[in-house]
Amino acid sequence: MREKKSTVLRRLIQQGKTLVKPGAYNALSAMIIEKAGFPCCGVTGYGVSASLLGKPDAGLITLNEIVMMSRYIAGAVDIPVIADADTGFGNAINVMRTVEDFIGAGVAAIHIEDQVVPKRCGHVAGKQIIAVEEMTGKLRAADKVRRELDPDFLLIARCDARGVAGGSVDELIRRANAYLAAGADMIFPEALTSEAELERCAREIQGPLHFNRTGVSPRLPLARLNEIGVAIVSNATGSLRSSTVAMWDYFQEFARDDVEAVKRFEARTRDHPAGNMHAFIGFSEIRKLEEEFLPTAEVLAKYAGSVGFQP
Question: What is the pTM of this model?
Answer without folding.
Answer: 0.95
